[in-house]
Protein backbone atom coordinates (compact mmCIF):
# COMPACT_ATOMS: atom_id res chain seq x y z
CA UNK A 1 0.00 0.00 0.00
CA UNK A 2 1.14 3.47 -0.84
CA UNK A 3 2.35 5.33 2.19
CA UNK A 4 1.23 8.85 2.96
CA UNK A 5 4.80 10.02 2.47
CA UNK A 6 4.93 8.77 -1.07
CA UNK A 7 1.51 10.23 -1.78
CA UNK A 8 2.62 13.64 -0.61
CA UNK A 9 5.68 13.51 -2.80
CA UNK A 10 3.53 13.17 -5.90
CA UNK A 11 2.48 16.07 -8.10
CA UNK A 12 -0.74 17.46 -6.72
CA UNK A 13 -2.84 16.73 -9.81
CA UNK A 14 -2.12 13.04 -9.43
CA UNK A 15 -2.92 13.06 -5.75
CA UNK A 16 -6.17 14.88 -6.47
CA UNK A 17 -7.11 12.30 -9.08
CA UNK A 18 -6.33 9.45 -6.79
CA UNK A 19 -8.06 10.83 -3.74
CA UNK A 20 -10.99 12.22 -5.70
CA UNK A 21 -11.49 8.92 -7.39
CA UNK A 22 -11.22 6.98 -4.18
CA UNK A 23 -14.05 9.09 -2.77
CA UNK A 24 -16.26 8.41 -5.73
CA UNK A 25 -15.69 4.73 -6.30
CA UNK A 26 -18.69 2.58 -5.50
CA UNK A 27 -16.66 -0.35 -4.22
CA UNK A 28 -13.46 -0.81 -2.43
CA UNK A 29 -11.20 1.06 -0.17
CA UNK A 30 -12.39 4.53 0.72
CA UNK A 31 -10.53 5.57 3.78
CA UNK A 32 -6.95 6.48 4.29
CA UNK A 33 -4.29 4.09 5.38
CA UNK A 34 -4.56 2.67 8.88
CA UNK A 35 -1.16 3.94 9.81
CA UNK A 36 -1.14 7.35 8.33
CA UNK A 37 -3.87 9.86 7.96
CA UNK A 38 -3.48 13.55 7.79
CA UNK A 39 -6.97 14.73 8.56
CA UNK A 40 -8.33 12.52 11.27
CA UNK A 41 -7.16 10.57 14.25
CA UNK A 42 -5.00 7.54 13.86
CA UNK A 43 -7.50 4.75 13.46
CA UNK A 44 -7.43 1.07 14.26
CA UNK A 45 -9.59 0.22 11.26
CA UNK A 46 -10.53 1.63 7.90
CA UNK A 47 -13.86 2.26 6.23
CA UNK A 48 -14.40 0.44 2.99
CA UNK A 49 -17.09 -0.05 0.38
CA UNK A 50 -19.21 3.05 0.00
CA UNK A 51 -21.69 1.61 -2.51
CA UNK A 52 -23.98 4.35 -3.83
CA UNK A 53 -22.63 6.93 -1.42
CA UNK A 54 -21.76 10.25 -3.04
CA UNK A 55 -18.73 12.27 -2.01
CA UNK A 56 -20.62 14.37 0.55
CA UNK A 57 -22.10 11.25 2.06
CA UNK A 58 -18.73 9.54 2.34
CA UNK A 59 -17.39 12.64 4.04
CA UNK A 60 -20.27 12.71 6.50
CA UNK A 61 -19.86 9.00 7.24
CA UNK A 62 -16.16 9.40 7.82
CA UNK A 63 -16.53 12.51 9.99
CA UNK A 64 -19.24 10.81 12.02
CA UNK A 65 -16.86 7.92 12.57
CA UNK A 66 -14.14 10.28 13.82
CA UNK A 67 -16.64 11.98 16.11
CA UNK A 68 -17.83 8.63 17.46
CA UNK A 69 -14.30 8.02 18.61
CA UNK A 70 -14.48 11.15 20.73
CA UNK A 71 -17.66 9.89 22.38
CA UNK A 72 -16.13 6.55 23.32
CA UNK A 73 -12.93 8.16 24.57
CA UNK A 74 -15.04 10.25 26.94
CA UNK A 75 -16.82 7.12 28.21
CA UNK A 76 -13.78 5.04 29.10
CA UNK A 77 -13.47 5.61 32.83
CA UNK A 78 -16.70 4.36 34.31
CA UNK A 79 -17.93 5.13 37.80
CA UNK A 80 -20.65 2.63 38.63
CA UNK A 81 -22.05 4.96 41.29
CA UNK A 82 -22.32 7.80 38.79
CA UNK A 83 -25.58 9.28 37.48
CA UNK A 84 -25.05 8.31 33.86
CA UNK A 85 -24.02 4.75 34.71
CA UNK A 86 -27.02 4.23 36.99
CA UNK A 87 -29.48 5.80 34.58
CA UNK A 88 -28.36 3.85 31.52
CA UNK A 89 -27.00 0.57 32.89
CA UNK A 90 -28.86 0.20 36.17
CA UNK A 91 -28.15 0.44 39.87
CA UNK A 92 -24.77 -1.01 40.92
CA UNK A 93 -26.37 -3.91 42.81
CA UNK A 94 -28.34 -4.84 39.71
CA UNK A 95 -25.69 -4.52 37.04
CA UNK A 96 -22.84 -5.91 39.15
CA UNK A 97 -22.49 -9.20 37.24
CA UNK A 98 -22.16 -7.39 33.93
CA UNK A 99 -19.92 -4.42 34.64
CA UNK A 100 -16.89 -6.22 33.22
CA UNK A 101 -18.72 -6.95 30.01
CA UNK A 102 -19.89 -3.35 29.67
CA UNK A 103 -16.43 -1.96 30.29
CA UNK A 104 -14.87 -4.36 27.79
CA UNK A 105 -17.43 -3.40 25.16
CA UNK A 106 -16.70 0.28 25.59
CA UNK A 107 -12.98 -0.38 25.60
CA UNK A 108 -13.16 -2.29 22.33
CA UNK A 109 -15.33 0.40 20.74
CA UNK A 110 -12.91 3.09 21.90
CA UNK A 111 -10.05 1.27 20.27
CA UNK A 112 -11.14 2.44 16.85
CA UNK A 113 -9.34 5.64 17.72
CA UNK A 114 -5.99 4.01 18.10
CA UNK A 115 -3.05 5.07 18.76
CA UNK A 116 -0.02 4.75 16.63
CA UNK A 117 2.03 1.70 17.44
CA UNK A 118 -0.77 -0.12 19.21
CA UNK A 119 -1.29 -3.69 18.09
CA UNK A 120 -5.03 -3.52 18.54
CA UNK A 121 -6.90 -3.61 15.28
CA UNK A 122 -10.66 -3.54 15.07
CA UNK A 123 -12.57 -5.08 12.19
CA UNK A 124 -12.58 -2.74 9.21
CA UNK A 125 -16.04 -1.45 8.54
CA UNK A 126 -17.83 -1.80 5.27
CA UNK A 127 -20.10 1.21 4.88
CA UNK A 128 -22.73 1.56 2.19
CA UNK A 129 -25.65 3.72 1.12
CA UNK A 130 -27.40 1.32 -1.24
CA UNK A 131 -29.87 -0.11 1.27
CA UNK A 132 -29.60 -3.73 0.08
CA UNK A 133 -32.43 -4.84 2.40
CA UNK A 134 -34.75 -2.03 1.47
CA UNK A 135 -34.94 -1.34 5.15
CA UNK A 136 -34.14 2.36 5.36
CA UNK A 137 -37.78 3.29 4.89
CA UNK A 138 -39.13 0.93 7.51
CA UNK A 139 -41.30 2.78 9.95
CA UNK A 140 -43.67 5.59 9.16
CA UNK A 141 -43.95 9.34 8.98
CA UNK A 142 -44.78 9.79 12.61
CA UNK A 143 -42.29 7.34 14.07
CA UNK A 144 -39.45 8.01 11.70
CA UNK A 145 -37.39 5.54 9.75
CA UNK A 146 -33.97 4.00 10.23
CA UNK A 147 -30.90 6.18 10.44
CA UNK A 148 -28.62 3.26 9.73
CA UNK A 149 -28.63 -0.48 10.14
CA UNK A 150 -26.21 -3.32 10.58
CA UNK A 151 -26.09 -6.49 8.53
CA UNK A 152 -25.67 -9.80 10.32
CA UNK A 153 -23.69 -8.43 13.30
CA UNK A 154 -20.81 -8.22 10.85
CA UNK A 155 -18.84 -5.04 10.18
CA UNK A 156 -21.32 -3.86 7.55
CA UNK A 157 -23.25 -0.66 8.16
CA UNK A 158 -25.88 0.71 5.83
CA UNK A 159 -26.42 4.46 6.13
CA UNK A 160 -29.88 5.78 5.36
CA UNK A 161 -30.99 9.26 4.34
CA UNK A 162 -31.85 10.17 7.90
CA UNK A 163 -28.25 9.75 8.93
CA UNK A 164 -27.23 12.54 6.59
CA UNK A 165 -29.74 14.85 8.22
CA UNK A 166 -28.23 14.44 11.66
CA UNK A 167 -26.01 17.22 12.95
CA UNK A 168 -22.29 16.86 13.37
CA UNK A 169 -21.22 16.32 16.97
CA UNK A 170 -19.94 19.87 17.55
CA UNK A 171 -23.04 21.56 16.18
CA UNK A 172 -25.40 19.34 18.15
CA UNK A 173 -23.42 20.08 21.30
CA UNK A 174 -23.52 23.83 20.81
CA UNK A 175 -27.12 24.09 19.72
CA UNK A 176 -28.50 22.01 22.58
CA UNK A 177 -26.30 23.37 25.34
CA UNK A 178 -27.02 26.99 24.39
CA UNK A 179 -30.77 26.53 24.61
CA UNK A 180 -32.01 26.69 28.19
CA UNK A 181 -35.09 24.59 27.46
CA UNK A 182 -33.06 21.84 25.79
CA UNK A 183 -29.75 21.70 27.57
CA UNK A 184 -30.76 19.07 30.14
CA UNK A 185 -32.46 16.78 27.60
CA UNK A 186 -30.07 14.09 26.46
CA UNK A 187 -31.92 13.45 23.22
CA UNK A 188 -31.52 17.06 22.10
CA UNK A 189 -27.82 16.28 21.65
CA UNK A 190 -28.45 13.25 19.46
CA UNK A 191 -26.13 13.49 16.46
CA UNK A 192 -24.41 11.46 13.78
CA UNK A 193 -21.67 10.28 16.16
CA UNK A 194 -24.32 8.77 18.45
CA UNK A 195 -25.86 6.98 15.47
CA UNK A 196 -22.44 5.60 14.58
CA UNK A 197 -21.80 4.49 18.16
CA UNK A 198 -24.92 2.33 18.21
CA UNK A 199 -24.01 0.67 14.91
CA UNK A 200 -20.52 -0.14 16.07
CA UNK A 201 -21.87 -1.93 19.13
CA UNK A 202 -23.75 -4.33 16.84
CA UNK A 203 -20.48 -5.58 15.33
CA UNK A 204 -19.56 -8.98 16.72
CA UNK A 205 -15.93 -8.03 17.32
CA UNK A 206 -17.00 -5.07 19.45
CA UNK A 207 -20.28 -5.52 21.34
CA UNK A 208 -20.83 -8.63 23.43
CA UNK A 209 -24.14 -9.34 25.11
CA UNK A 210 -25.71 -12.00 27.29
CA UNK A 211 -27.96 -14.76 26.05
CA UNK A 212 -29.76 -16.68 28.76
CA UNK A 213 -31.03 -20.10 27.88
CA UNK A 214 -33.22 -22.47 29.83
CA UNK A 215 -31.74 -25.95 30.03
CA UNK A 216 -33.33 -29.06 31.45
CA UNK A 217 -31.30 -30.30 34.35
CA UNK A 218 -32.96 -33.61 35.02
CA UNK A 219 -35.28 -35.12 32.48
CA UNK A 220 -36.95 -37.41 35.00
CA UNK A 221 -37.72 -34.79 37.60
CA UNK A 222 -38.26 -32.03 35.06
CA UNK A 223 -36.04 -29.61 36.97
CA UNK A 224 -34.39 -26.93 34.93
CA UNK A 225 -31.75 -24.30 35.21
CA UNK A 226 -30.47 -21.47 33.02
CA UNK A 227 -27.21 -21.07 31.23
CA UNK A 228 -25.68 -17.80 30.11
CA UNK A 229 -23.32 -17.22 27.24
CA UNK A 230 -22.17 -14.25 25.21
CA UNK A 231 -23.26 -13.38 21.69
CA UNK A 232 -23.18 -10.30 19.45
CA UNK A 233 -25.21 -7.37 20.69
CA UNK A 234 -28.60 -6.50 19.29
CA UNK A 235 -31.30 -4.33 20.85
CA UNK A 236 -33.26 -5.02 24.02
CA UNK A 237 -36.95 -4.35 24.26
CA UNK A 238 -39.45 -3.49 26.92
CA UNK A 239 -41.09 -6.68 28.00
CA UNK A 240 -44.37 -7.09 29.79
CA UNK A 241 -46.03 -4.44 27.69
CA UNK A 242 -48.99 -4.99 25.41
CA UNK A 243 -48.12 -5.92 21.89
CA UNK A 244 -49.31 -3.28 19.47
CA UNK A 245 -50.11 -5.69 16.69
CA UNK A 246 -52.87 -8.09 17.63
CA UNK A 247 -52.25 -11.67 16.61
CA UNK A 248 -54.31 -12.16 13.46
CA UNK A 249 -52.35 -15.10 12.12
CA UNK A 250 -51.88 -13.27 8.82
CA UNK A 251 -48.65 -13.14 6.83
CA UNK A 252 -48.00 -9.53 7.86
CA UNK A 253 -48.54 -10.33 11.45
CA UNK A 254 -45.30 -8.87 12.66
CA UNK A 255 -44.78 -8.37 16.34
CA UNK A 256 -44.17 -4.74 17.17
CA UNK A 257 -41.79 -4.87 20.07
CA UNK A 258 -40.88 -1.73 21.91
CA UNK A 259 -37.16 -1.72 21.21
CA UNK A 260 -35.04 0.22 23.64
CA UNK A 261 -34.10 3.06 21.34
CA UNK A 262 -33.91 6.54 22.75
CA UNK A 263 -33.21 7.74 26.27
CA UNK A 264 -36.66 7.07 27.74
CA UNK A 265 -36.80 3.43 26.76
CA UNK A 266 -33.12 2.90 27.53
CA UNK A 267 -33.73 4.20 31.05
CA UNK A 268 -36.84 2.07 31.47
CA UNK A 269 -34.91 -1.04 30.47
CA UNK A 270 -32.18 -0.17 32.98
CA UNK A 271 -34.50 0.72 35.84
CA UNK A 272 -37.63 -1.42 35.77
CA UNK A 273 -37.51 -4.47 38.03
CA UNK A 274 -39.44 -6.37 35.37
CA UNK A 275 -36.41 -6.24 33.08
CA UNK A 276 -33.43 -8.56 33.37
CA UNK A 277 -30.30 -6.96 34.82
CA UNK A 278 -28.50 -7.70 31.54
CA UNK A 279 -31.13 -6.02 29.34
CA UNK A 280 -29.43 -2.62 29.56
CA UNK A 281 -25.89 -4.03 29.10
CA UNK A 282 -27.31 -5.90 26.06
CA UNK A 283 -28.68 -2.81 24.37
CA UNK A 284 -26.63 -1.11 21.68
CA UNK A 285 -28.38 2.26 21.91
CA UNK A 286 -27.69 2.34 25.65
CA UNK A 287 -23.95 2.49 24.98
CA UNK A 288 -24.37 5.23 22.39
CA UNK A 289 -26.54 7.37 24.67
CA UNK A 290 -24.29 6.75 27.67
CA UNK A 291 -21.19 7.74 25.69
CA UNK A 292 -22.98 10.84 24.47
CA UNK A 293 -23.89 11.74 28.06
CA UNK A 294 -20.30 11.28 29.18
CA UNK A 295 -19.09 13.47 26.34
CA UNK A 296 -21.46 16.23 27.40
CA UNK A 297 -20.20 15.97 30.98
CA UNK A 298 -16.64 16.20 29.73
CA UNK A 299 -17.20 19.10 27.35
CA UNK A 300 -19.87 21.10 29.14
CA UNK A 301 -19.39 20.14 32.77
CA UNK A 302 -22.93 19.01 33.52
CA UNK A 303 -24.98 15.83 33.22
CA UNK A 304 -28.08 16.13 31.01
CA UNK A 305 -30.43 14.28 33.33
CA UNK A 306 -33.62 14.48 31.29
CA UNK A 307 -35.82 12.59 30.58
CA UNK A 308 -36.29 11.86 34.27
CA UNK A 309 -38.27 8.78 35.15
CA UNK A 310 -40.15 8.18 38.39
CA UNK A 311 -39.10 4.66 39.29
CA UNK A 312 -40.81 4.93 42.69
CA UNK A 313 -44.06 4.22 40.88
CA UNK A 314 -43.36 1.15 38.77
CA UNK A 315 -46.96 0.22 38.26
CA UNK A 316 -47.55 3.68 36.89
CA UNK A 317 -44.63 3.26 34.50
CA UNK A 318 -45.73 -0.16 33.33
CA UNK A 319 -49.17 1.12 32.44
CA UNK A 320 -48.03 4.40 30.95
CA UNK A 321 -48.26 3.78 27.23
CA UNK A 322 -47.37 7.29 26.28
CA UNK A 323 -44.13 7.23 28.22
CA UNK A 324 -43.22 3.86 26.77
CA UNK A 325 -43.60 5.25 23.29
CA UNK A 326 -40.39 7.07 24.01
CA UNK A 327 -39.36 10.43 22.68
CA UNK A 328 -41.89 12.61 20.92
CA UNK A 329 -39.56 13.16 18.03
CA UNK A 330 -38.17 9.79 17.17
CA UNK A 331 -34.95 9.87 15.25
CA UNK A 332 -35.34 6.29 14.13
CA UNK A 333 -37.83 3.59 13.60
CA UNK A 334 -38.51 2.52 17.19
CA UNK A 335 -40.37 -0.71 16.58
CA UNK A 336 -38.07 -2.76 14.41
CA UNK A 337 -34.60 -4.10 14.90
CA UNK A 338 -31.73 -2.28 13.22
CA UNK A 339 -29.77 -5.47 12.63
CA UNK A 340 -30.72 -7.33 9.47
CA UNK A 341 -29.86 -11.00 9.20
CA UNK A 342 -27.18 -11.64 6.62
CA UNK A 343 -28.16 -13.88 3.77
CA UNK A 344 -27.04 -14.87 0.32
CA UNK A 345 -29.39 -12.37 -1.29
CA UNK A 346 -27.36 -9.54 0.15
CA UNK A 347 -24.17 -11.06 -1.09
CA UNK A 348 -25.45 -10.92 -4.62
CA UNK A 349 -26.45 -7.27 -4.42
CA UNK A 350 -23.64 -5.42 -2.76
CA UNK A 351 -20.22 -6.21 -4.13
CA UNK A 352 -17.98 -6.94 -1.16
CA UNK A 353 -20.49 -8.03 1.40
CA UNK A 354 -19.77 -11.69 1.98
CA UNK A 355 -16.53 -11.24 3.79
CA UNK A 356 -15.18 -8.75 6.23
CA UNK A 357 -13.86 -5.56 4.76
CA UNK A 358 -10.36 -6.68 5.63
CA UNK A 359 -10.05 -8.21 2.22
CA UNK A 360 -11.50 -5.24 0.41
CA UNK A 361 -8.40 -3.62 -0.88
CA UNK A 362 -8.05 -5.98 -3.83
CA UNK A 363 -11.70 -5.28 -4.58
CA UNK A 364 -11.02 -1.74 -5.72
CA UNK A 365 -12.64 -1.34 -9.10
CA UNK A 366 -10.42 -1.65 -12.07
CA UNK A 367 -10.32 2.07 -12.90
CA UNK A 368 -8.94 3.08 -9.52
CA UNK A 369 -6.64 0.08 -9.74
CA UNK A 370 -5.16 1.49 -12.91
CA UNK A 371 -4.76 4.91 -11.39
CA UNK A 372 -3.06 3.38 -8.39
CA UNK A 373 -0.84 1.36 -10.69
CA UNK A 374 0.02 4.58 -12.49
CA UNK A 375 0.85 6.30 -9.25
CA UNK A 376 2.99 3.42 -8.10
CA UNK A 377 4.95 3.30 -11.34
CA UNK A 378 5.27 7.06 -11.18
CA UNK A 379 6.74 6.95 -7.69
CA UNK A 380 8.92 4.06 -8.74
CA UNK A 381 10.20 6.16 -11.61
CA UNK A 382 10.81 9.03 -9.18
CA UNK A 383 12.79 6.78 -6.89
CA UNK A 384 14.93 5.71 -9.85
CA UNK A 385 15.62 9.33 -10.70
CA UNK A 386 16.17 10.36 -7.10
C1 LIG B 1 -24.75 -12.53 40.00
O1 LIG B 1 -24.35 -13.84 39.65
C2 LIG B 1 -24.48 -14.77 40.72
C3 LIG B 1 -23.87 -16.09 40.29
O2 LIG B 1 -24.43 -16.52 39.08
C4 LIG B 1 -25.95 -14.89 41.13
O3 LIG B 1 -26.10 -15.80 42.17
C5 LIG B 1 -26.47 -13.52 41.53
O4 LIG B 1 -27.84 -13.59 41.79
C6 LIG B 1 -26.20 -12.51 40.44
N1 LIG B 1 -26.55 -11.18 40.92
C7 LIG B 1 -27.32 -10.33 40.26
C8 LIG B 1 -27.60 -9.03 40.90
O5 LIG B 1 -27.75 -10.59 39.15
C1 LIG C 1 -28.27 -11.17 18.26
O1 LIG C 1 -28.78 -11.64 17.04
C2 LIG C 1 -28.05 -12.72 16.47
C3 LIG C 1 -28.70 -13.03 15.14
O2 LIG C 1 -30.05 -13.30 15.31
C4 LIG C 1 -28.05 -13.90 17.41
O3 LIG C 1 -27.28 -14.94 16.88
C5 LIG C 1 -27.48 -13.48 18.76
O4 LIG C 1 -27.55 -14.53 19.67
C6 LIG C 1 -28.24 -12.28 19.29
N1 LIG C 1 -27.62 -11.81 20.52
C7 LIG C 1 -28.23 -11.82 21.70
C8 LIG C 1 -27.48 -11.28 22.85
O5 LIG C 1 -29.35 -12.24 21.84
C1 LIG D 1 -33.29 -36.95 38.43
O1 LIG D 1 -34.53 -36.93 39.07
C2 LIG D 1 -34.96 -38.20 39.54
C3 LIG D 1 -36.39 -38.07 40.07
O2 LIG D 1 -36.52 -37.01 40.95
C4 LIG D 1 -33.98 -38.71 40.62
O3 LIG D 1 -34.35 -39.97 41.07
C5 LIG D 1 -32.59 -38.76 40.00
O4 LIG D 1 -31.63 -39.13 40.99
C6 LIG D 1 -32.19 -37.42 39.38
N1 LIG D 1 -30.94 -37.56 38.66
C7 LIG D 1 -29.89 -36.74 38.83
C8 LIG D 1 -28.71 -37.03 37.99
O5 LIG D 1 -29.91 -35.81 39.61
Give a concise summary.
The protein has helices at residues 4-8, 12-24, 55-74, 83-89, 92-95, 99-110, 161-164, 169-177, 192-201, 262-271, 284-300, 314-318, 321-324, 344-349, 366-385; strands at residues 47-51, 125-128, 148-151, 156-159, 208-218, 223-232, 237-238, 258-259, 339-340. It is an alpha/beta fold and 386 residues long.
Tell me what you see in this structure.
It is a single chain. The chain has one domain (26-363): Collagenase (Catalytic Domain), CATH 3.40.390.10. It is 38% helix and 11% strand. It contains 15 helices and nine strands. The strands form three sheets. It has a five-stranded mixed sheet. It has a two-stranded antiparallel ribbon with strand order 5-6. Strands 7-8 form a two-stranded antiparallel sheet. Strand 5 (208-218) and strand 6 form a beta hairpin. Helix 3 (55-74) packs across helix 9 and helix 4 (83-89) packs across helix 10 (262-271). The longest helix is centred in the N-terminal third of the chain and has 20 residues, at 55-74. It is globular and about 65 Å long. One 2-acetamido-2-deoxy-beta-D-glucopyranose binds next to strand 5 and strand 6. InterPro entries: MetalloPept_cat_dom_sf (IPR024079). Residues 1-24 form the signal peptide.
Amino acid sequence: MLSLQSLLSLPSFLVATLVGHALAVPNGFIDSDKNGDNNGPDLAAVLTGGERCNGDEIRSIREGFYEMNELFQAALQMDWDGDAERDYFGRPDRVMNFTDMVESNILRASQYSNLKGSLTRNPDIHVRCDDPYNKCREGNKKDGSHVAYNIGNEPHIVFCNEYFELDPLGKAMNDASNDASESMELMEYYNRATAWARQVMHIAGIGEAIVEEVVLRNYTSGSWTTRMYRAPMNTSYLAGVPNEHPDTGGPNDIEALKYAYGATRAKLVAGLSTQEPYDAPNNADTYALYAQARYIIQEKGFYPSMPQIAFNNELGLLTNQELQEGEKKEYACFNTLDVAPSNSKTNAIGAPISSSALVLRPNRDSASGYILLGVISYSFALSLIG
